[in-house]
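R.M. (postdoc): so does anyone remember the format we settled on? I'll just put the structure tokens first.
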């Protein structure tokens, strides 16, 4: 419904227009009339009509003056002039002001309605276009501007590319660029924690830790977001590993304190892996969430243990999880039996038929083994299913000897998983070396080619290759090329520059310099005086760098 206001100094015309049209039926609201422009001004301010109908020649303030004022004050208002004057100058002035229609008197109600419906349709069209533009602007603004919480959450969830993260962070003036990243997650079940605090106000250490967690959330908000009511997530960044370590220290200290002193508090802090790319923040987040999960299981188990009647046993005698983890990581088979016997000595007097404390102690060690050695079991499709299988074994233990057998089996299982990982690396390294042997003669052969061959990133392959072979990829490639060059120099009559091309060097001068630096002889001297055995010894003791 469009609001109509009529301005004309002839009362008869106002009455005819007002009374001869069924305004509501036609989709309009007749909002009043005035005898001249000056009288109309306050009415227009109050009513703010959609369409203004006005005469031109009126006392005090004529229609053109009124229209000029209204077009500036209410630019969306449509103006229709009805006048008995057909002079061109009037019409031209009206058009310059922005009048929508110029009609000559006398005008019948039917003709006026036709003009009103035309103007009403134009209003509807303009409003629709305006609404669409507003929606487009809102959508554009939403796509170009993103809240910090959503940005960080999407980054951790893996829903955002590096370029998208850079674009959105710039739009909200958030600096997310660094050389290294690590994610920390605080899982604080606030309702339970508050309830616990009320019931156990005497536990000063736990209350202090709870306060520290709340302060952490309040005071460290840069690159932090609330993932849920209980989970707070930080993306910690540093330009150097040392800086990152300093930034992470507060979280690590709090994590250690919670593990040692707050077994019954519903708090867990998980810390992810260090990553050197923004795109890999997602991996660090998954590691942190996994760390939270295992720490929660451990806390729940130890909470049950602390609530049990342990008057005859001191749990601290056999809860040295650190010693168990150390042996699991670096222990040997020939010391396995003696270590387990000593480690489990504190459990000798447990009556497995009447007390369940032993089950919780073994469960605590088992959960810690899974948490601390996640890299060993991560290749398993269902690690929690493996944990459940071990927990079922614990439930069947009835003697100290069975306890020792269980611990031995637990350690051996993790050693088996570890050997599978090493075998996996061994097979991968063997494939890379074989690929190098088949392609070393290509002058553009690179680490990138080998990484694509085994479906790994160049950085990861470079790191693993160095760890497993004690030499870098380029060192190994250079060694293969130089050894092949020595063989060609001794077994063929190919010239030095031909040998260079045959082993992957398109610059003979560079090849000769590299060959002399690594063997102590030029290619010509080696062909004349050198032996492969002597030079191989030199190669084994030298560090090979093509780019040095």
């Amino acid at each position: 419904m469009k609001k109509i206001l009529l301005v004309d100094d002839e009362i008869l015309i106002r009455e005819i227009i007002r009374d001869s049209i069924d305004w509501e039926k036609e989709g309009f609201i007749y909002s009043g009339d005035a005898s001249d422009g000056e009288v109309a001004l306050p009415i227009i301010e109050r009513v703010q009509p959609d369409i203004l109908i006005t005469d031109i020649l009126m006392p005090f303030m004529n229609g053109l003056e009124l229209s000029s004022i209204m077009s500036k004050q209410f630019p969306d208002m449509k103006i229709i002039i009805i006048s008995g004057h057909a002079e061109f100058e009037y019409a031209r002035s009206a058009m310059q002001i922005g009048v929508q229609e110029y009609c000559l008197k006398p005008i019948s109600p039917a003709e006026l309605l036709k003009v009103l419906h035309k103007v009403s349709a134009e209003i509807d069209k303009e409003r629709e276009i305006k609404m669409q533009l507003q929606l487009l602007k809102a959508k554009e603004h939403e796509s170009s501007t993103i809240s910090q919480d959503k940005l960080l959450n999407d980054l951790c969830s893996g829903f955002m590319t590096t370029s998208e993260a850079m674009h959105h962070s710039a739009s909200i003036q958030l600096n997310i660029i660094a050389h290294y990243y690590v994610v920390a997650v605080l899982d604080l079940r606030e309702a339970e924690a508050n309830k616990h605090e009320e019931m156990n106000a005497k536990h000063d250490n736990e209350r202090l830790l709870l306060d520290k967690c709340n302060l952490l959330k309040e005071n460290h908000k840069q690159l932090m977001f609330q993932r849920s009511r209980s989970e707070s997530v930080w993306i910690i960044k540093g330009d150097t590993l040392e800086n990152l370590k300093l930034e992470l220290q507060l979280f690590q200290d709090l994590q250690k304190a919670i593990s040692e002193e707050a077994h019954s508090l519903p708090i867990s802090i998980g810390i992810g892996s260090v990553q050197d790319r923004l795109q890999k923040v997602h991996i660090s987040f998954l590691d942190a969430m996994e760390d939270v999960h295992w720490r929660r299981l451990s806390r729940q188990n130890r909470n049950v243990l602390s609530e049990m009647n342990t008057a005859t046993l001191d749990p601290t005698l056999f809860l040295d999880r650190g010693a168990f983890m150390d042996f699991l990581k670096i222990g040997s088979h020939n010391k396995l039996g003696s270590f387990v016997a000593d480690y489990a000595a504190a459990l000798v007097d447990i009556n497995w038929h009447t007390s369940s404390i032993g089950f919780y102690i073994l469960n605590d060690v088992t959960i810690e083994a899974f948490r601390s050695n996640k890299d060993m079991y991560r290749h398993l499709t269902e690690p929690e299913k493996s944990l459940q299988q071990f927990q079922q074994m614990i439930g069947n233990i009835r003697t100290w000897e069975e306890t020792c057998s269980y611990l031995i089996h637990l350690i051996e299982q993790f050693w088996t998983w570890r050997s599978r990982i090493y075998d996996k690396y061994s097979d991968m390294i063997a494939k890379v070396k074989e690929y190098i042997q088949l392609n070393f003669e290509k002058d553009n052969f690179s680490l990138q080619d080998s990484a694509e061959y085994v479906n790994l990133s160049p950085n990861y392959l470079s790191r693993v290759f160095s760890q497993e072979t004690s030499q870098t990829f380029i060192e190994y490639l250079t060694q293969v090329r130089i050894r092949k060059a020595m063989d060609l120099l001794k077994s063929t009559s190919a010239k030095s520059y031909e040998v260079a091309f045959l082993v992957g060097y398109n610059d003979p001068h560079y090849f000769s310099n590299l060959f002399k630096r690594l063997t102590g002889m030029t290619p010509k001297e080696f062909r004349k005086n050198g032996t492969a055995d002597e030079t191989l010894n030199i190669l084994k003791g030298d560090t090979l760098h093509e780019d040095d």
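R.M.: ...and that's the designed sequence above, right after the tokens. Also worth knowing: Residues 195-199, 534-538, 540-548 have pLDDT under 50 and may be disordered. The first strand starts at residue 2 and ends at 7.
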